[in-house]
Specification:
P-loop_NTPase; binds adenosine-5'-triphosphate; AAA+_ATPase; alpha/beta; about 30% helix; ATP-binding; about 325 residues; Alpha-Beta Plaits; six-stranded mixed sheet; Rossmann fold; ABC-2 type transport system ATP-binding protein; about 25% strand; four-stranded antiparallel sheet; 2 domains; ABC_transporter-like_ATP-bd
Length: about 325
C-alpha cells in the first residue's frame, strides 16, 4: 500500500498485559505523537467495546487523523500503547492486525485496477480465507456489484469511498477505523455511506472521524472530542438527563457499580471514566450518595442534559482550526 506518512519520533510500546476483565476490543493508553518536534497528539486514551460506534470529532488539525493512524497500527506512537483484543498491536503479527480494517483520509486505491481485482488483492494481502467469497460479500455489502468490473479511476468520489470502505471490511475485521468517510460527498452519496456504516455496526466496532458534529451524532453511540491534540470531552452522543458521567480514582467493579440501587446501566469509557444511566424516576443525588460511599474514590459526577453542540462549542472555545 502506498503510504507517504513520515515516521514520527517513536518509542516502542511496552509489553502487553493481559488484564481484560471487561473484554474491551481496543484499549489505547496515553498515546502521544510528535512530528519533528510538533506535538500532534497528547495523552490520548480510549477504550472501545465490541459492536460500539465511536465518533472522533474536532476542528481541522485537532489530531483526528493522527489518532486514527495510531489506533489502526499504521504508525507507532511516540508514547503510549494500543492493545487490540488484549494484545499489543505493534508487538503482535498479522494474525492480530487482521482484526482491524482501516480507511485512511486518502484511500490507498490504485487507479488502474478494477474494483473486484483490487478487493481480491486486499483480501489476499490479509490472508483472508476464501478470498473470492469474501470479496463477493464486501461488494454486495458496499453496493458495488454493478461496478465490480470498472477501473477505480472511472468511479465517482462516492463509489471510490465505498471501495475504500470495502477494502477495510473485506477480511471481516472486528474493528473498523474510518477517517472522514463522508468527506467530499454530495448529499445523495452521503446518505449511501451513512446507510452502509449503519449496516456495519453491530458486527464490527467502528471508530470514525469527522469535523462535522451532525455527522457524528447521526452515526456514533458516543463521541470523543479532540482539540489541539488533546481529548477535551468524551461521552454519549445522546445527552439525556438520566445519563451521568462519573470519574473515579480507582477502577470500579462493573457489576458492583451496575448493581447499586437506582442504577440501570453502567458503561466504562476508560478505566476511570464511566457512563451511568439511572433507573426511571431516580434522583441523581440519591445515587450520588451511594456511589460516593464506595471505595472507588469518586472524583467527578456530571448529570447529562448539555446538548452535544454546546459541549463541542465549549470544548473548542476560543480555538480555531490548526493548520
Ligand atoms: N506528517 C506530518 N508531519 C508534520 N506535521 C503533521 C503531519 N501530519 C499532521 N501533522 C500536524 O499535526 C496536527 C494534527 O494533524 P491531523 O491531520 O492529525 O489533524 P486532523 O484533526 O485530522 O485534521 P483534518 O481534519 O484537517 O484532517 C496538525 O497541526 C498537522 O499540521
Amino acid at each position: 500500500m502506498p503510504d507517504s506518512t513520515p515516521t514520527p519520533e517513536c518509542r516502542t510500546a511496552g509489553p502487553a498485559d493481559e488484564d481484560t476483565a471487561t473484554a474491551p476490543l481496543l484499549q489505547a493508553e496515553q498515546l502521544s505523537c510528535r512530528y519533528a518536534g510538533h506535538t500532534a497528539l497528547e495523552d490520548f486514551s480510549l477504550t472501545v467495546y465490541p459492536g460500539e460506534v465511536v465518533g472522533l470529532l474536532g476542528p481541522n488539525g485537532a489530531g483526528k487523523s493522527t489518532a486514527l493512524k495510531l489506533l489502526a497500527g499504521v504508525m507507532p506512537p511516540s508514547d503510549g500503547r494500543v492493545r487490540l483484543a488484549g494484545r499489543d498491536l505493534l508487538d503482535r503479527g498479522l494474525r492480530y492486525r487482521r482484526q482491524l480494517g482501516y480507511l485512511p483520509e486518502r484511500p490507498p486505491l490504485y487507479p488502474e485496477m478494477r474494483v473486484r481485482a483490487y478487493l481480491r488483492f486486499c483480501a489476499r494481502l490479509r490472508h483472508t480465507p476464501q478470498a473470492a467469497a469474501a470479496v463477493d460479500t464486501a461488494l454486495a455489502e458496499c453496493g458495488l456489484e454493478s461496478v465490480a468490473g470498472r477501473r477505480l479511476d472511472q468511479l465517482s468520489q462516492g463509489y471510490r469511498q465505498r471501495v475504500g470502505i470495502a477494502q477495510a471490511i473485506v477480511h471481516r475485521p472486528a474493528l473498523i477505523v474510518l477517517d472522514e468517510p463522508t468527506v467530499g460527498l454530495d448529499p445523495l452519496q452521503l446518505q449511501g455511506i451513512r446507510t452502509l456504516i449503519r449496516r456495519l455496526r453491530g458486527e464490527h466496532a467502528i471508530i470514525l472521524s469527522s469535523h462535522i458534529l451532525p455527522e457524528i451524532q447521526a452515526l456514533a453511540d458516543r463521541v470523543v472530542i479532540l482539540n489541539r491534540g488533546r481529548i477535551c470531552h468524551q461521552g454519549p452522543t445522546h445527552t439525556d438527563a438520566d445519563w451521568i458521567s462519573a470519574r473515579f480514582r480507582d477502577r470500579p467493579d462493573a457489576s458492583a457499580l451496575g448493581g447499586l440501587p437506582g442504577i440501570a446501566q453502567a458503561k466504562p469509557l476508560t478505566g476511570d471514566h464511566w457512563q451511568i444511566r439511572l433507573s426511571p424516576g431516580t434522583a441523581p443525588e440519591t445515587v450520588l450518595a451511594e456511589v460516593a460511599a464506595q471505595d472507588w474514590g469518586l472524583l467527578a459526577w456530571q448529570p447529562g442534559g448539555d446538548a452535544l453542540e454546546q459541549i463541542f462549542l465549549k470544548a473548542t472555545e476560543g480555538t480555531g482550526d490548526t493548520p
